[in-house]
Design a protein that fits this description.
1 helix; twelve-stranded mixed sheet; 13-stranded mixed sheet; 268 residues
């Protein structure tokens, strides 16, 4: 086990680079960053632990803490090594994570979030800024995003809670769920279902080759719809007999297209 503690008042960016294993991050009320790195699996583990880079450096008017575990000579042993990183950071810290196959769990409130992964699941509680993630596989779960969300994956399910800004998602397979879209939303998938549980205003553009599409429109919003399904069903709870919203009501411009899935428009 290796432990490091740093005083990190002001803006903080945490940069974690890990080949595999598990990353656990907790944000709490403090000006201190605490890092625990544990590597198990024999003589190779001891070498990897010793050569890992854990350092504090100045970044603009704040700080950056770097946790990097990388040793190309030992890459063939990574599958049998158990690597775990536990980090406690001040509330509002920015997160940057790069991994081949490690799982990430981040609890608390953070600033912006950036991630790149080949595989592994990622789960983050509250992000006050923008969120950007690129992954080959693995599930992604972001409870809330105060800015924009830009997600690009090959496979794995994507679940976004409330997103205040623009949502852009590109995925080959896996389901995409957005709890509450606060701005424009553009989602494109090859397969897998798409679901936006609630949208109030903005441009919503949804495209899927072979997945179902469901969009919830909040009561009181004006809606303009262009929905197409080549070999699926089209349905809507927004009947022509519904009471006309006020002229100054928010407007949702919805475009939805699926080659072989259903398209369903509902009331949120």
């Amino acid at each position: 086990m290796r432990r490091e503690t740093f005083e990190t008042p002001g803006e903080l960016t945490l940069d974690v680079q890990l080949p595999s294993g598990r990353i656990e991050i907790e944000a709490f009320e403090s000006t201190t960053t605490e890092v625990e790195l544990d590597v198990r699996g024999g003589e190779e583990a001891a070498e990897l632990l010793e050569e890992a880079r854990i350092e504090l450096r100045q970044s603009g008017g704040g700080h950056e803490v770097v946790v990097e575990v990388e040793n190309r000579r030992l890459s063939r042993f990574w599958r049998r090594l158990d690597i775990r990183v536990r980090i406690r950071v001040p509330q509002g810290a920015n997160l940057r994570v790069s991994t081949a196959s490690a799982d990430l769990r981040a609890r608390g409130r953070f600033g912006w979030f950036e991630a790149e992964a080949a595989s592994g699941d990622m789960e983050v509680d509250h992000i006050s800024g923008n969120a950007t993630a690129k992954a080959a596989s693995g599930d992604l779960n972001l409870a809330s995003v105060g800015g924009a969300a830009n997600i690009n994956t090959a496979s794995g399910d994507i679940k976004l809670g409330h997103v205040a800004g623009e949502v852009v998602v590109k995925a080959a397979s896996g389901d995409v769920t957005v709890g509450d879209a606060g701005g424009d939303a553009t989602i494109s998938t090859a397969s897998g279902d798409q679901r936006i549980e609630a949208v109030t205003a903005g441009k919503v553009d949804l495209k899927s080759m072979s997945g179902d599409i469901s969009v919830g429109i909040r009561q009181g919003s004006n809606v303009w719809v262009d929905a197409r399904a080549m070999s699926g069903d089209l349905s809507s709870e927004l009947e022509l007999g519904d009471e006309q919203p006020a002229d100054d009501a928010p407007l949702v411009e919805l475009r939805a297209a699926s080659m072989s899935g259903d398209v369903n428009v509902v009331r949120a």
